[in-house]
Amino acid sequence: MNRPLLVIVTLLLWLAGAAVAAPAPDTGQRAWLAEHPQLRVGVVLQAPYAQYDQRLQQLSGVNVELMTWVGRSLGVELLWQHYADVPDLERAVRAGQVDLAPGLAQTPAGLRLWLFSDPYMRVAHLVVGERNGAGAVDLDNLGARDPLALRVPSAAADYLRGTYSNLNLQPAASDRQALQRLLTQRARYAVIDEAQLTRLSLDPQFADLAVVGDVGLPTLLRIGTRSDWPQLAELVDGALRSLPPKDLEQLQARWLKPKYPRLGESTGFWQNLCLLLGVLLAVALVLGFSLRRQRHALEQQLLAARQDLARREAAEEALQLTQSSLDHGPVGILWVNWDSHIRYANRAAEQMLGLGMGELVDRPLVEFEPGLHMDRWLTLWRRARNQEEGPLNVETEVRRADGGSLPVDVSLSFLRFRKAEYLVVFLTDVTERRRARAELGEREARLQGIAANVPGLVFRLERPHPGAPPDFAYISEGSESLVGYPPATVMAADFGIRSLVHPDDRESYHASQDAALAADRDWHWQGRILTRDGRQRWADIRASARRLDDGVVAWDGIVWDMSENKQIELALADSRAQLRELSAHLESVREEEKARIAREVHDELGQVLTVLKLETSMCELAFAELDPGLRERLGSMKRLIAQLFQLVRDVASALRPPILDAGLASAIEWQARRFEARTGIPCLVEVPEQVPVLSDAKAIGLFRVLQEALTNVMRHAEAHSVQVGLALEQGELCLSIGDDGRGFDERICRRGQSFGLVGMQERVLALGGRLTLDSQPGEGTLLSVRVPLMNRATLPEPGPATGAGAIAEGEGAR
């Protein structure tokens, strides 16, 4: 039947029938559609499937009409987006910019992105020849003298190469070029799909071409929906099933059937058309009523037939994909008969054994495994046939065609196919596995050697999942020399390293281990352990945490014997404590000596100066009138005595300011006023109204720190103002001295000879307090001292003192 007759029949059937309404969505689907009133449709611009009219600013084509019908059936608004090619469309899907797309062919790669609908249209690949040719063409009968032009690369080219070995294929860059090769006699036939033939048939130069055969490789067009919206896939499938088959045929005929422009110009065409119209009208009048009654049944049968055909074509496509996957997979597959001869081999097995396509068939297995004689093979056959032990697995080496050997993992499984029985042999190349196994063995041996020579105990602690108890996965041989127990004893679940810890240190051990396990962080602990013979040793445990690929958290670490270092450390700590006690004692003696000297200077020298002043005054009263020169000398002597009085007071104040007897707060204000008078730098003082009574040692110690700090400000800070604060905070007395001077780098200062800072630090430590220093270059300096009101010092406090503090030692105090 030619094309005009097909159009007339389709038109009459459409006039005789009624449109079939799409099934109404269920409640859940209606709710989903209500949440998604708009859907984004992506189409690839390729005529006649989809094309964009720049003048009208609209899309047209078979896929556009189909999606418009589906949108009306679902009651949603379609938002159109067009792309240059399929990769651009797939990139848009990955970016979440497209919800569904028509005109897609199902591929393994596409299954990761789309949920494909049932096929709605079948686009055949046609064989085209000259209109005056010999008629229908069978591809099996073509030979080298019948060149066949087609576009390469394409699915049709791959199919013809794999199916027909007799064809002389002529590659072309495009479908148009393939048809031009046919017109220029460079090819006898051309292969082109039905859609492209429809588009190119409108060109007058191709009017003399006709379809002479079918390749047998149809392209099944589907609608792809987003893989994360299964509801949309169900709705689209329902809408496609409700579309009458005749409408799909009309749609395909309107867009995908070749149109030859010269056909309507012939007189015979119109005569045949009129004749066919008359016959068809007569037939329509006779069969109209019966067609109306049978329409519904025929449509249902046609729909069932189309669905069955689509399922078969999908099954064929799936079978082809499966065969391709088997041939190009990494596992070699052999079907072997009971006589050990190979009946089937995939391409992977042929490549493993170094043979060409089909060279493995009918060859015995003993050629590739010399030890597989017939008795052994029959034994394996019986074991696999009984299926008592499940699939048989063995690792062996097979002989390749080039004489080399290949290590493989062999798995045997029994198979009944139709009326025959086979033993399916799966071959897996384990070359890399053997290499990795050898490397792993070498690394394990290297690790064992290193761990055995480490002067300590190397271990690995593993926890399979959060909350599970950890277990020791590895203990080195060093446990024998360290604690006297073999590794197996230490690794036991009821023993472990915790059993070696000294009872007095177990609490700190468990605290550090629990903290490391809870946060999956590194583990560090130092403490005492007991050896098998009861000796006590100091141990240092350090372990690094890391998470493995299977979620297991592992701690790899080592237990060092630090007994000798710990003894040195304890001896050093005792020595430091003794030095600190000696320093505190010397400071106490120094303050007492200063207080004694201050009292003697103030009392003894003051009394002598007072008597001298009285004697001078009496001499002036008695003899000044006798000699004017004597009066002048006596006045000069009185002025010297007054200066000496002031010098005595200054010396006594420097040794121990008497203002300390009035309290630390008064002494701080007095020292600040003296600093202002000497330097001209404003000094802001903040002290509480009530300061608890302090011992002389604490009062003098804080006062000396203040003196040294102010001396450093005067010598080095270049400050414009100073702030001194005294406060009570949580049972501690806090003294702070800050300036806005040039500051300095603490790290450089602490590495240098900062004896002034060391002196202040030691003085504060002797009082049981702590000193902090905060300074940055250009940002000033803040020195803070915190001393407990209740004595926490481990060293004895110095005795009463009334002397003055030491002078800061240059830049070392800063």
From TrEMBL:
Biased composition annotated in UniProt, kind: Low complexity: 800-814
Protein's name according to its UniProt entry: Oxygen sensor histidine kinase NreB
GO molecular function, a single term: phosphorelay sensor kinase activity
GO CC aspect terms: cytoplasm; membrane
InterPro entries named among the record's database cross-references: HATPase_C_sf (IPR036890), HATPase_dom (IPR003594), His_kinase_dom (IPR005467), PAC (IPR001610), PAS (IPR000014), PAS-assoc_C (IPR000700), PAS-like_dom_sf (IPR035965), PAS_4 (IPR013656)
SMART domains: HATPase_c (SM00387), PAC (SM00086), PAS (SM00091), PBPb (SM00062)
Coiled-coil region(s): 565-592
SUPFAM superfamilies per record: ATPase domain of HSP90 chaperone/DNA topoisomerase II/histidine kinase, Periplasmic binding protein-like II, PYP-like sensor domain (PAS domain)
Enzyme class: transferase
Position of the signal peptide: 1-21
Transmembrane domains' residue ranges: 269-291
PAS domain location: 443-520
Reactions mediated catalytically: ATP + protein L-histidine = ADP + protein N-phospho-L-histidine
NCBIfam families per UniProt: sensory_box
Histidine kinase domain sequence ranges: 596-791
Cofactor (UniProt): [4Fe-4S] cluster
Keyword Coiled coil tagged: yes
Alphabetical UniProt keywords: 4Fe-4S, Coiled coil, Cytoplasm, Iron, Iron-sulfur, Kinase, Membrane, Metal-binding, Signal, Transferase, Transmembrane, Transmembrane helix, Two-component regulatory system
Stretches for region Disordered: 794-814
Superkingdom of the source species: Bacteria
Domain PAC stretches: 392-442, 523-574
Entry EC number(s): 2.7.13.3
Main location: cytoplasm
